[in-house]
Amino acid sequence: MECSETLSTQSTDALHTVSFVIPHKGRETMLIATLESIAALEQTGFAVDVIIVTKNTAPLTIPDDLQAQLTLNILQSPDTVTISAQRNQGVASSQATYLAFIDADIELASNWLQILFSDLHKDNRVLVSAHQQAPSNAFILEHIRTSLSNVELDTNVTFLPGRNLFLRRSHCDMVGGFPEHLATCEDYYFSQSLSQIGPCFYTSSTAYIHLGEDKILHEMYRKEIWRGQSNIASLKGRKVPLREVPSFVIPLYLVVTFSLAVLCLISAVLTSLTLPLILGCCALVGFLIPFWAYCVRLIRLVPQCVSWWDVVKFYSVYFPARAIGTIRGSFYSITTDSHA
Asked: How many Cβ atoms from other residues are within 10 Å of residue 118's Cβ?
């Protein structure tokens, strides 16, 4: 493992090389905002290059002044490959010692690189990530998603979201890069593989804003169906922590118990029989207890602008979408979607 280093001792001829690897498809405006935040980073002590792996067939229209500020390498990728394959393609073209995996729709804080480099070189860490920050004009749904993303801060974790990751190139190679057979949940697989080597740290010392965060429930519903499609596939080839099991089981459980409750209660009304009524009430209780527990947990995390009704609506959409995605991914091939 490399020894701790401080930027203040680095000479100008011994810069730390860092490649920012960005998988991209569509939404070019957000990509440009992401690149602008990279250009605005405090880069003293670093030699930074940016590798964009895009699925766009038309050439990217990046402003000339932004191109002048960045060392850019734009690679083309087939539309059929996964996000993991795009990231791995970017790594293969990099010669840097450090890698920064970021999505094409995030805005990094100006101290992001300096803080994460420093954090990486503490306590034998192998992977670090900044916490999510809601924009000043955030929608209610953005506040909810941001709060869920920041449940555990300033601690070692077994999973880090793939939107912003910083690590050594050697450790990325050690785990074989990202799993190209997964269209989603690839960050679960990748970060857990790295956690077997050493600590993965989620810090509150620096932040990013997810420009492409879901803003309305309909948008989230569609995306969660897509995100859930690799739930089952992501279980293969890795040891699943006990704390991760509910994320796979609860959505399916809640959909089944709620459906059963509705069917039984309708049957009881139509037939006036006692048994369907008892079964329906039991199923309803079985649904309400975990559903309410999730709502109570979330309301304690979100800012005051988020109401109980907002939380109930969120989970009423989130859980069915996840269940549908999990079921769909078990029977059908997973399509690639716009990631950024």
From this structure: 18
